[in-house]
């Protein structure tokens, strides 16, 4: 569905939500990603699942009844049941039938948007969420889901506006905070992203992804000690995050804590034995510590992994690096072992690359598959 069509859906109640008009006219040109620093930045570009409005399981006539029309309520409940069973076609039919009997069922429109989201029919999903908002301007889940569609479409400024509006209505929606932090990070608004991630963590201190993304933003801001501490918190919650170990080890190496950095790199490799970036970074750190023999062995493994991954350019760079080490090891190894200490900053005049190399990040176009999630459990999982 075109943006102009979305606008026409809102024309009847434009005075209620004037921000939506400007939202659909904002510049949707994507900026280049920021991964310029020489670290293994690999943010969890996870967009939280669409929010589903919780209603009583079978209490169609409870005081929170979805509709005063009994047939509409019955079809709505059928739609929810079929949706939960992954019968998307049956769920769509039931929700359509409910809306024919009660066109004011904004929750049914929200579910329809979720169905189309799962089918990657983003334009149609956008239409359903927009109509749900027109019917109920205080529908936090619909604003959140609208932001999700816009985010995935690359309309990041508009997505920010939608996420913020969801949070105006429900400031405790952690998923909206998580995704807002993510899109702010993508827009290079790092201080704002940091503040939002911190809010998300204050509401849900068990969100490992929020800690991890916060650590990356802090690292890019140059707040090294805070970033290390935040990586540690992320790893307490998710000890299997090999990239977090790699990133934290990079910072430890830069801070002169080479011994711990080496240990942390090795943990990253234990978790992911194919992690070429971790092998390379470990090799560089070992070399800077004067351990030429071990450095050479680790760099050989990095070379192998890069070749297997098809990264010939990086593999050739490592070949050149190893040749330089071989040429100088006979005459310079004693001096290296005497002059290089764990607290010493890497020598910038050396022919050896002294900083960890970048790792290609996951991209927004390949998010974790969308799964249904109720409003009571939505988070940046």
Write up what this structure looks like.
With 381 residues, the protein is mainly α. Among the domains are: 1-28 and 48-170, Alpha Horseshoe (Serine Threonine Protein Phosphatase 5, Tetratricopeptide repeat); 240-339, Serine Threonine Protein Phosphatase 5, Tetratricopeptide repeat (Alpha Horseshoe). The chain is 62% helix and 1% strand. It contains 17 helices and two strands. It has helices at 3-10, 19-23, 70-84, 88-101, 106-118, 122-135, 140-153, 156-169, 174-186, 190-203, 208-220, 224-237, 242-254, 258-271, 276-288, 292-309, 312-339; strands at 51-52, 373-374. The protein has a two-stranded parallel ribbon with strand order 1-2. Helix 1 (3-10) runs parallel beside helix 6 (122-135). The longest helix has 28 residues, at 312-339. The protein is elongated. Mean pLDDT is 77; it is low at 1-16, 24-40, 42-46, 54-63 and 333-381. TPR repeats lie at residues 72-105, 106-139, 140-173, 174-207, 208-241, 242-275. The chain crosses the membrane at residues 34-52. It comes from Nostoc punctiforme (strain ATCC 29133 / PCC 73102). Pfam families: TPR_11 (PF13414). Residues 325-350 have a biased composition (Low complexity).
